[in-house]
Amino acid sequence: MEKVLQVKDLNISFHTFSGEVKAIRGVNFDLYKGETLAIVGESGSGKSVTTKSIMRLLPEHNSEIKSGEILFNGKDLTKLKDREMQKIRGHDISMIFQDPMTSLNPTMKIGGQITEPLIKHQNMSRHDAKERALDLLKLVGIPKPEIRINQYPHQFSGGMRQRVVIAIALACNPKILIADEPTTALDVTIQAQILELMKDLQKKIDTSIIFITHDLGVVANVADRVAVMYGGKIVEIGTADEIFYNPKHPYTWGLISSMPDMDTEDEELFSIPGTPPDLLDPPKGDAFAPRNPFVMKIDLEQEPPFFKVSETHFAATWLLHPDAPPVDPPVAVKRRQSQFLEMSGVNSGAVELEKRKSQFPGKKEGK
Amino acid sequence: MAKYLLQRFIYMIITLFIVASITFFLMKLIPGSPFNTFQKLSVVQQNLLLEKYGLKDPLPVQYFNYMKSLVMGDLGVSFQFNNTPVTELLGNRIGPSAILGLQAMVLGAIVGIFLGTISALKQNTWIDYGSTFIAVIGKSIPSFIFAGLLQFYIAVKLGWFPVMLWKGPEYTVLPTIALAMFPISIAARFMRTEMIDVLGSDYITLAKAKGASFWQISVKHALRNALIPVVTVMGPLAVSLMTGSLVIEKIFGIPGIGEQFVKSISTNDYPVIMGTNLLFAALFVVIILVVDILYGIIDPRIRISGGKAK
């Protein structure tokens, strides 16, 4: 499959009064043509920062890309000049934001806001751009576009505004669409409509989507692949099925256990104890170690490398090391794993680890 | 819109009526009489004059009589200025003050909005510090110091503009600049704060994500949204500028309304006090109406749609 975007060893810091916040600490991923990659993780895990850095929308005065590359069309986006970046924004890569109530300019007509990128990137005349804007409004399912195009954002409901934002994002048929929690601010029925719309449009214009969310229900609905972020790093990445039914990282286990489903028998909803790591002073070993019920001594000393679970599935946890003691994942995860095994028709234990002893620096340490 | 304007007009009349009433009674609390300042008048003569102008009547009667003539458009005659009708007196005096005030206001708004905008766009650079410095200077140093400095350096040393008096457009330049320092600093400060606020908002990020350039973002998207609060503060400020500055008018020898207003109070010139106050109040309510209409032009969310609630 063709890679449209490669993020390589990305490190981003914010300079604040209390010091340097290492928000992104070595993120790697590829985005393939036509796929939807979901990035999940709790607040502060670096989901938005990663995607904003792709668009170069991080605040200039206090953020710094310390190292790494973001390759798009053979160009490293981190090194482009502002003017070149402007040509890519809205044209090749566009973005949908979290809160449709605030992401449209309140004093500008909807039509003007949709035609702006068309006039800018495709040199359309005002008239042609308006025609295209009408088509786009129809495409995203806004009734009476001829009237709506001359209205202001306050005359639209939240769901309708998000449709407009999607229309703006899709105006120039971008190759990559970044959706930063596009349904979080919407109520559940509207959420479903917007998700359907996005899936539908993705097929029509064959774009790749990076979908940021912390709603695993949404992920299950839209994603082809899932990257789980924690403490400024990707800790597990794989296809949606692999992440949902055969998760390997204890953080992913926590996430899955805290998602109620039809089979849940617990009285109380599970939540991961503790708080996210302080990225002003990131922990030496695995950032998740203090909250990990399966913590080993090595977790506190050394960051785990990625262990390969399958061709598409990688997880950064020492538990996957062949020398690690077997652990008992939470009930919800085990239930899902057995479903996974039924689905894929393989026997238990057949999911093999590629043994990378050379990467294992210390002696095996029990819990 | 017509219905809205009519409604606003009725409110304005009510406001002016209340202002007139309050001013009338407050004014009567000022000790002294309009005529005892003339040493030459005997007590008998003073009493005769008081009698003639109805100032010996009980207060409610005086009030009723004043309101009656006010409704008929008669503001009475001045006690101090040779029985000149108050309307004529105000008509002659408001001109220079209003011209000066308007010029200072326009200059202040343009320069202030410009300074505020660039300092927000170039936040924490020397441009920002420079314009903040100008704003602090303009707010903390009184206008008569600027007036003196301008007169000395620009008029006397360089001779670019006349030092004082009121004989033509070139005479308005220096007092306008001196008077504009305050609105410049107010507009600059508000504009900077608002602009920074707007530049951090989601729709500006979206505009960036669309590929808009720096100038497209600042002019097309940010400026208009940042203007709303600035218009709010600049409206009432315009009134206080147009109704004259005693100090500036004195320094530049301008026959404005500010000086006359102060004089009318110190001499208990009741009709002039009332007339001037009513004029100021009328200007005020009109400017507020203008500001409200401007809101609608700038911000579609508060636009009036034929009196119907949206």
Describe the structure in your own words:
The complex is a heterodimer of chains A (367) and B (310). With 367 residues, chain A is an alpha/beta fold. In chain A, 32% of the residues lie in helices and 21% in strands. The longest helix of chain A has 18 residues. By secondary structure, chain B is mostly helical. Chain B has one domain: Orthogonal Bundle (MetI-like fold), CATH 1.10.3720. Helices cover 74% and strands 0% of the residues of chain B. Chain B has twelve helices and no strands. In chain B, helix 4 packs across helix 7 and helix 5 packs across helix 7. Chain A: Belongs to the ABC transporter superfamily. Chain A: One of its GO terms (molecular function) is ATP hydrolysis activity. Chain A: Keywords: ATP-binding, Cell membrane, Membrane, Nucleotide-binding, Transport. Chain A: Pfam families: ABC_tran, oligo_HPY.
The beta-strand count of chain B equals 0
Q: What Rg of chain B, in angstroms, do the CA atoms define?
A: 24 Å
Oligomer: heterodimer
Mean pLDDT of chain A, to the nearest integer, reads 82
CATH superfamily label of the largest domain in chain A: P-loop containing nucleotide triphosphate hydrolases
Number of domains of chain B: 1
Q: How many beta-strand runs of chain A?
A: 12
Order of helices and strands of chain B: HHHHHHHHHHHH
Distance between the termini of chain B: 14 Å
The name of the CATH architecture of the largest domain in chain A is 3-Layer(aba) Sandwich
Order of helices and strands of chain A: EEEHEEHEHHHHEHEHEEHHHEEH
CATH class of chain B: Mainly Alpha
- The helix fraction of chain B, in percent, is over 70%
GO molecular function (chain A): ATP binding; ATP hydrolysis activity
Protein name (chain A): ABC transporter ATP-binding protein
Keywords (chain A): ATP-binding, Cell membrane, Membrane, Nucleotide-binding, Transport
InterPro entries (chain A): AAA+_ATPase, ABC_Ni/Peptide_Import, ABC_transporter-like_ATP-bd, ABC_transporter-like_CS, Oligopep_ABC_C, P-loop_NTPase
